[in-house]
Description:
Layout: H1 2-23, H2 51-64, H3 67-78, H4 87-103, H5 107-120, H6 133-145, H7 147-182, E1 187-194, H8 206-210, H9 214-241, H10 252-282, E2 286-293, E3 318-321
Parallel strand pairs: 1-3
Antiparallel strand pairs: 1-2
Amino acid sequence: MLRRSAVSLSLGTVLVLCHPLSSHADDPHPPSRRDLPRPSSPLPSPTDQSPEARLQRGKLAYQRGDYAAAVLTLRPLLYPQTLLAQEDQLLLAHRLLALSYFFEHDEAGAEQEFNLLLSLRPDFSLDPLVDPLKAVAFLDDIRRRNEQRLEEIRRRQQEEELRQKAEAEALQKRAEELAQKQAKRVYYERVVHRKLSPLHFVPFGVPQLSDGRTAVGTVFLVGEALTGAASAGAWLTVRLRYPDNTFPAKEYQAAQALTGTYLGTGSAFWVLVLAGLIDALWHAKTTVEIRELSQPPKELLPPPNSTPQSTSAITPALSLAF
Length: 322
């Protein structure tokens, strides 16, 4: 019994190995084992009847050159209905079935499967480095005969891709608008405080010197001191020399010059005093306080008698108060 079993096993192995040679005796470019793709995943369990496992068994049968077994394994996965959920698995099943039909000399079945592949992927092609050149030429001939139909399929696929892209962008935009409407609005108030002291209202560059701005303070100090002293000196001279506001004829020009001097220098003095005050207030130290509000500021609230509006109409979310 052991010897007879061994003989039958050897004959079965020989038949399987010789099958591709007998099927492609007339093929000038038969596929060799070196050209066939190697299994990239572990062997599936014989008891596993899932579509993925059956596809793997069909792929292994094709790689062994048992194209009849590959057809018997792969065809139920595609007909009468597709059992494969992923697109790459579906394309692989059609490709292996088409090549198995071709190697079995069933050109009608191979052409049907190649047409289905081209309908799914108009730019599908075989690899001349892996697949037999006769099968590559067979597919190229099918593509040439159906070029107009394939061009129409490409155009429809492009239109469908554009439509799906536009729908996805519209849905994304709608989702962003909805999220913006439902997002919690937070309002902040920005308050600026200026620290003023009595020194800011003292002339002669005192505010600038106290803030460390020596150059500006010195300019105001010297300018106000000179103009103030000149104005006061000219005014005292006029009052002391002409107490009753009467001028001798020979001193009329001198009196006018003294009067113009104390008026002009006095005006310059007060201009410098005012400029120093403005400069001191402008450069006064400030502190900025930002605090969160529990409700929208009054400026953003609708009038009491107006129709309530949605919060989405309120665009500013930051209230600035100085």
